[in-house]
């Protein structure tokens, strides 16, 4: 690989190809098709692929990028009905009724939510019950289990209206999954309409905006509509 190609591998075009290809292959799987031909790429992904070829990225490298995207899409497809729901449990719980609503909404639609403690009145007791370990009551236990669940889930949602170190950490862990050779995971950040969300969270790139949503809500009806649209697009 020459220097020009190495530099191009870090370009926005290549990042966009990785994202659009993986989302495209996932939609093929969702529709019951086999995404093992380039012809199954979306029109958008095909345009990005063509741009990469025009920029002198070799067929071999592009084929490798697409193969990895297919593999990642297959992995996410197997867990696309598992959703990690993040929410503050120590910094304030004003949004707890809406977090409870979101979890129940998902469960009613037969999605699995491992992070039930984030929607519980007693998070520690619920966490202990979920993990089945009466000694798992310290911060490390919560962090390690949450990170593992985030890695295993195909979707991620977070209530962002209440500042929380834990939620910020969980958001970032999900965001970097592709860098850990884990599937790209669509993310939904929801927050009450009158709340501000840190630019550190909302500052995403153009290609990340393809699968990371931020939505405000005023009522359960607003939240139900947002979650339904998110699930229809990504699960």
Structural description of this entry:
The chain has 235 residues and is α/β, with parallel strands linked by helices. The protein folds into two domains: 3-77, no CATH class; 83-234, 3-Layer(aba) Sandwich (Rossmann fold), CATH 3.40.50.450. The protein has ten helices and four strands. A four-stranded parallel β-sheet has the order 1-2-3-4, sandwiched between helices. α2 (12-30) packs across α4 (59-77) and α7 (139-152) runs parallel beside α8 (165-175). The radius of gyration is 19 Å and the shape is elongated.
Helices and strands in order:
Elements: H1 3-8, H2 12-30, H3 43-54, H4 59-77, E1 83-86, H5 96-108, H6 123-131, H7 139-152, E2 155-159, H8 165-175, E3 187-192, H9 199-202, E4 212-217, H10 220-234
Helix pairs in contact: 2-3, 2-4, 5-10, 7-8
List the main descriptive attributes of the protein structure presented here.
single chain, 235 residues, alpha/beta, Rossmann fold, 9% strand
Query: Which fold name fills CATH's third level, the topology of the largest domain?
Result: Rossmann fold
The second-level CATH architecture of the largest domain is 3-Layer(aba) Sandwich
How many structural domains can be distinguished in the coordinates?
2
What is the element string, with H for helices and E for strands? HHHHEHHHEHEHEH
CATH class of the largest domain: Alpha Beta
- State the strand order across the main sheet: 1-2-3-4
Q: What sort of overall outline do the alpha carbons produce when their principal axes are compared? A: elongated
Helix amount: 40-55%
Q: How many separate helices? A: 10
Distance between the termini: 37 Å
Radius of gyration: 19 Å
Low-confidence stretches: none
**From the helix content, strand content and strand pairing, which structural class follows?**
alpha/beta
Largest sheet: 4 strands, parallel
DSSP summary, beta strand count: 4
Strand content: 5-15%
Q: State mean pLDDT (0 to 100 scale).
A: 87
